Amino acid sequence: MLWADAELRVVNLANVREVAEVRDFLARFGLTFDETVEYTVGLYRHEQLVATGSLAGEVLRNFAVDEALQGEGLAATVVSHLMQEAARRGRYHYFVFTRPGKAHLFASLGFKEIARAEPYAALLEAGIGSIDSYCRELAQAAAALPAGPRAAVVVNCNPFTLGHKAVIAKAAQENAAVVVLVVSEDRSLFPFDVRLRLVREGLADYQNILVLPGGKYIVSAATFPGYFTRGEETVAAQTRLDATIFARYIAPALEVTVRYVGDEPYCPVTRAYNEAMAEILPQYGIAFKVMPRIAVGGTIVSASRVRELIRQDNWEEISKLVPETTYRYLVSPEAAPVIARIRSSHSRH
């Protein structure tokens, strides 16, 4: 396909040379090529790559245009093609990440900016569905909760432990109602549907707790854009962007005035996320409370510890760290594929 004197080609992601060319081109702009993308295109002039972009789920990413050709519409050509490809795959909602200074270019293509984390990243969206409709759905789901102060807890629960339950129980004790948002991104060893179910089962005795899927705007491929920044910038971008979206949109929709977290002695990214929330949430009138991790037998309760004990086949210790509902699932035939995956993996997630 030709555009002016540039040719648009689909990059063969199995071709080492073609991928290396895209990677080197992105590196000129301080960007990295994410291996998880499923579709990449390039615009070539005289066999030289002059613009590129990729698709991963609903996310349009890895955009770059040769400095000498910026302003000639190459970005619009790449974006339009990727949106058409996404639609061909049945996706009609699109996210775009860019540097804050480039956000206006995508706004001119019909994208609406959701939030930014200066000076690292801006997130925009277009298509069917929006953060506004997402927030309306959240508000409707939470409408029946008891009146009074309302808290939020965001959890991954890989799997649900007594540590998670302690933080949520504390929030339920100190507030009229609690909304627990379970991260929907399916990149953990325990599938999302299992994680959501175990949280709901483990909290079934509480009448003032509502457990909901986090959706695409909480700790997702959309709000944690680690692909285009490096090192400490990556952590700063993703944590600040996610915290800002929660404070600006999600907390008001849920009428939440405080967010609870457990402290983080192990994971540097989660610790940085807590630090970002401690800074950003109060700016929007949302209190931020950190609860110390509970310990059993001198060992801090964590999902990573449970997964390690699964690898060790230490079910006696596991039973001390998880609610009965989680333990019952872990020893059931249904969990066998998950247990096998954990034993063969060294992933922290």
Automatic annotation (TrEMBL):
Signal peptide: none
Name of the protein: [Citrate [pro-3S]-lyase] ligase
InterPro entries registered for this protein in UniProt: Acyl_CoA_acyltransferase, Citrate_lyase_ligase, Citrate_lyase_ligase_C, GNAT_dom, Rossmann-like_a/b/a_fold
Enzyme class: ligase
Any one GO molecular-function label of the UniProt entry: ATP binding
Pfam families in alphabetical order: Citrate_ly_lig
The EC number(s) this enzyme carries: 6.2.1.22
Domain N-acetyltransferase positions: 6-129
UniProt catalytic activity: holo-[citrate lyase ACP] + acetate + ATP = acetyl-[citrate lyase ACP] + AMP + diphosphate
Keyword Ligase: yes
Keywords (A to Z) from UniProt: ATP-binding, Ligase, Lyase, Nucleotide-binding
Transmembrane segments annotated in the record for this chain: none
Described function: Acetylation of prosthetic group (2-(5''-phosphoribosyl)-3'-dephosphocoenzyme-A) of the gamma subunit of citrate lyase.
Residues forming coiled coils: none
PROSITE patterns from the UniProt entry: GNAT
